[in-house]
Amino acid sequence: MHEFLLQLPKVELHLHIEGSLEPELMFELAKRNGIELPYATVKEAKAAYEFSDLQGFLNLYYQGMNVLRTEQDFYDLAIDYFQRARGEGVVHIDMHFDPQAHLQRGIPLEVVMAGLLRAKEEAEASLDLSVGMIMAFLRDRPVEEALRVLENAAPYWKFIDAIGLDSAERDNPPAKFQALFKRAKEIGLVRVAHAGEEGPADYIAEALDILDVQRIDHGVRCLESDIVVERLRESQIVLTVCPLSNVSLKVVDDLRNHPLPQLLKKGLKVTISSDDPAYFGGGLLANHLACADALGWDADVFRLLNRNAIEEAFTSDQRRKELM
Ligand code: ES4
Ligand code: ZN
C-alpha cells in the first residue's frame, strides 16, 4: 500500500504555503536576513510544535513567517515545498497565501507575489507540477482591511484563481466578510472559505449562503447538522479535509476516530490535503500513509479522493485531462 500511495499521482487542494516553511529553511532565512529566532536549533523549533488548538498553532505560524522578507525568500519557500511535494508524487497544488500577514510586517504585496509567481512558473515549466493560487484573507482582522487589500491587488487579479478565508474561525463568522466576497464575485473571482474546522456546522451553511463559495476548506463539523450534510451531498461541494492537521490541532483526538469514513459514507465529495505540512507532521504523502494505517483504506478509496481533487483543482481543462 505504501508503494502504491507513493506512485499515485496526488492532488492537494488545501495548502498554506507559509505553513510549508520547514525549520531548516526558517533558520537559513533568519541567518540571511539577520533575524534572531526564539529557538536555538531546528530540533528545538520542532519540539515547540505541540498545539492544543488552532490559535496555539496560528501564534507560531505567524511568528515563523517573520523570516520571509525578500522576493527571493518567498521564491525559496515555495520552490522548496514544490520540489519536496513533487518528490512524493504530488502533481497539482492549490496554494493559499496570506497577504495581510506580510503587509502587517511591512512586506509589500509585490514582493510576495513576485516570489510566489516565479516559483509557480518554474514548477509548471520544469517540475510537471501545476499550481493554483488562492489569495486568502484573515478572518480575525477587519473586513475593511481585507477590502483594501483586494482592491490594491488589482494588478494580480489575473494571476489568482480564487480568494479564501482563513485564520481564527471561532467568533469570526463568514457573514463578517459578506462585502469582501460580494466584491470578489463582481470581479469574477472564485471563492472558497475555511468553515467547520473549529467553528460550528452553521458556519458552513453561512459560507454557502452568504459568501457563495465553491469549496469548503475542512468542513468536518458538518456532521453536527443533518441539514448541512444533505446540502453538501446534494450540491457535491468539495470538502478539503486535512487529517494530520485535525489531529495536531485537536479537532479530532485520534486519526483512528477521524470523521473521514463517515463523510465518505454520507456521499460527500471529499479530498485530503496537508494544510500546514511543516507544522502538522508531514506533507500529502504522509497524510495518505497515515490514513491508510489508521483507517484501513484500500487503493480504491485513495483513487476516489484524488479523482475528486482533480475534478475540483484550479487548473486548465487540458491539464485536468492530463491528470485524469
Ligand atoms: C490554518 Cl489549519 C488553519 N486553519 C485556519 N487558518 C489557517 N491558516 C493556516 N493554517
Ligand atoms: Zn487551512
UniProtKB/TrEMBL annotation:
GO terms for molecular function: hydrolase activity. Binds 1 zinc ion per subunit. Its EC number is 3.5.4.2. The active site is at E197 (proton donor). Zn(2+) binds at H14, H16, H194, D275. PANTHER family: ADENINE DEAMINASE. Belongs to the metallo-dependent hydrolases superfamily. Adenosine and AMP deaminases family. Adenine deaminase type 2 subfamily. This is Adenine deaminase. It comes from Halomonas qaidamensis. The lineage of its organism: Bacteria, Pseudomonadati, Pseudomonadota, Gammaproteobacteria, Oceanospirillales.
